[in-house]
Design goal:
The complex is a heterodimer of chains A (440) and B (163). Chain A is mostly helical. Chain A is built from 17 helices and seven strands. The radius of gyration of chain A is 26 Å and the shape is globular. Chain B has 163 residues and is an alpha+beta fold. Classes of the chains: A mainly alpha (440), B alpha+beta (163). Chains A and B meet through α14 of A and β4 of B.
Chain lengths: 440, 163
């Protein structure tokens, strides 16, 4: 072997070592810079404020705002104490558990100052400096006015303190490493405080402020990108998924058989059921439960704003909603018998429920959607009003119908009550929902 | 059309419209009159039977949907002469007033005990939530279920049964 080649190799090796060293330094610098960005200091604990520290009007305004923000829904476990956390939130990245936001000193936010609370709401950083996952929609809460955050703080700090330690999240690797969230925030957390639009009236602006801020409607009704951030611009409000349910588009691209108006949206949001679109189900159930108790003017404002999202789209001229009994029975004869025995008692024309202003199936949005998920979930799981108040109820059919029967029935419903293309893979979809239901 | 159903272990071939509610078939054709017609809308639970071991509203179950599946009614739990354990517990606690809802209550509760022989109070209440009693004997019904749990464990004293 020739020495020159050795020399060449040695030089090459030196170059490799040099590159490696340079690369390592760059990496270190990068990691250092990243950790610099990712680092958020802890804020000192403060003595837990007393209820008498807050004016009653502030607390009651905070109660109304927290209702519109639906804090209680995520921050309360099934059967658990209000706001004490522990509810499992299934995400594409694993399961997160909500935390205790009662003023308990050890396990809640009893030691949090107003500044720490506002930092969590706007920057997604816990009092101790840890980054919070964007399941807490701080990308929306950044839009909320300072005074309203004061009111919500006053409301939460005057709730009964409950001791409830946080449960450990179950996330896919490496998302348990919270400093990574700083990178997510660099990319996606740029929202600013809401400023009213002068070309719209006060009601619209109030609705926009509530829907875009505390209400975080687009959190479910917009698609999310691979990093779990909401898509914006033209994709905003074009529909998304929430806990396995389709959250229909609100920008006019939705398939409602009869277009929504501010009035019909108000009825839906206030009562949970609207005679020409359907009943709130799945994750929308708790939302309308909250809005049924929110200030009426705020719910009207939200309905006004949401209706305006689709106002510039010319609604397609809707012919009379379809009801092709014979055609559907011919396509799915066994399902016609299932419908007659299981569904007709409530859903057929002239049934007692139909004389009470409940929506006919040909106007129910679930049967018009591109995906069959909502229809299948309603059949298998039924529709249940949130605990407490009265509301639309549908019994579950998971025990009496097999996946093949659910699929057959869904195909029948689609043919009979919609002009849209047939759904596919219905049996598999039913099996998926059923499997998820049988999880403990 | 002929539909064959299996009720309490016995097969029955019926010439029947497959849309007929299972409840009507049980009561009118098979003369199993335990399950009751309450609301006919799946809201009260008086018609509850088991389909493949799970509680279901027979008033909203077309008979064609359950061909070849295992159906169990209150008659399958025991008889007047030889009542099953849960039936004995209901009798001991005098859980029935008018009795109209009781067959459904028994079947609903039995499904829970089959799945979980030692349920806690919260589990019992959550499970029984779908069944209504117009007389208001819910407290006795709950007590009877707790008694059945205790009886299975060999505890006989009513004092030990109370939560």
């Amino acid at each position: 072997m020739k020495p020159t080649r050795w020399a060449g190799r040695a030089a090459g090796r030196r170059a490799v070592v040099g590159w490696a060293a340079g690369g390592a330094l760059a990496c270190l610098a990068g990691v250092g810079a990243f950790l610099g960005i990712a680092y958020r200091s802890g804020l000192p604990t403060v003595p837990t404020p007393k209820a008498s520290d807050f004016p009653v009007e502030l607390v009651s305004r905070g109660a109304a705002l927290a209702t519109i923000g639906d804090c209680i829904v995520c921050h309360t476990a099934d059967g658990g104490a209000a706001y004490a956390g522990g509810r499992a939130l299934a995400t594409p990245f694993g399961t997160l558990y909500s935390t205790n936001i009662t003023p308990d000193r050890e396990t809640g936010i009893g030691g949090w100052s107003k500044e720490a609370f506002k930092r969590a709401m706007r920057d997604g950083v816990s009092r101790d400096g840890r980054h919070l996952y964007p399941a807490l929609p701080y990308d929306h809460y950044r839009r909320v006015h300072d005074g309203d955050l004061d009111a919500i703080y006053a409301f939460l700090m005057t709730r009964p303190a409950t001791s409830a330690p946080a449960k450990a999240n179950e996330l896919i690797f490496p998302l348990g490493f919270r400093p990574l969230l700083a990178g997510w925030k660099l990319l996606f957390l740029h929202q600013e405080e809401f400023t009213p639009r002068p070309d719209h009236d006060a009601v619209w602006n109030r609705g926009a402020y509530l829907a875009e801020g505390l209400g975080h409607c687009s959190g479910c009704h917009s698609p999310r990108n691979l990093a779990g951030a909401e898509e914006t611009g033209g994709s905003a409000y074009s529909g998304g998924m929430a806990e396995g349910w389709v959250a229909p588009a609100l920008n006019g691209a939705g398939p409602a058989a009869i277009p929504w108006t501010a009035d019909s949206l108000f009825t839906y949001l206030r009562t949970g059921v609207e005679g020409r679109h359907g009943a709130a189900a799945g994750p929308m159930g708790p939302v309308v439960h909250g809005l049924s108790r929110a200030p009426e003017s705020d719910v009207r404002a939200i309905a006004t704003y949401i209706a305006s999202l689709s106002a510039d789209r010319t609604a397609p001229e809707t012919p009379a909603p379809p009801d092709r009994t014979a055609e559907a029975a011919k396509a799915n004869p066994a399902a016609a018998a299932l419908f007659a025995g299981a569904c007709a008692g409530c859903h057929e024309g002239g049934a007692p429920m139909m004389t009470q202003g409940r929506p006919g199936l040909s106007t129910v949005t679930a049967l018009q959607l591109d995906r069959p998920d909502n229809a299948i979930r309603a059949i298998l799981q039924g529709i249940h009003p949130p605990t407490g108040p009265a509301g639309p109820t549908m019994p579950p059919f998971a025990a009496s119908l097999t996946d093949a029967q659910v699929a057959d029935l869904a195909a029948y419903l689609r043919t009979r009550f919609s002009d849209r293309p047939a759904w596919t893979s219905l049996e598999a979809a039913s099996a998926t929902v059923r499997k998820e239901e049988s999880q403990p | 059309m002929t539909v064959t159903i299996t009720v309490n272990g016995a097969d029955h071939a019926l010439d029947i419209d497959p849309a007929t509610p299972l409840l009507y078939v049980l009561r009118d054709d098979l003369e199993l009159n335990g399950a009751k017609y309450g609301c006919g809308l799946g809201q009260c639970g008086a018609c509850t039977v088991h389909i493949d071991g799970k509680p279901a509203f027979s008033c909203l179950t077309p008979v064609g949907a359950v061909a070849g599946r295992r159906i169990r009614t209150v008659e399958g739990l025991g008889s007047a002469d030889a009542p099953g354990l849960l039936q004995q517990a209901f009798e001991k606690e005098q859980a029935a007033q008018c009795g109209y809802c009781i067959a459904g209550m028994l079947m609903r509760a039995q499904a829970l005990l089959d799945r979980n022989p030692d349920p806690d109070e919260a589990q019992i209440r959550a499970h029984m939530q779908t069944n209504l009693c117009r007389c208001g004997t819910h407290m006795r019904i709950l007590r009877a279920i707790r008694r059945a749990v205790a009886m299975r464990k060999g505890v006989q004293s009513a004092q030990d049964v109370r939560p």
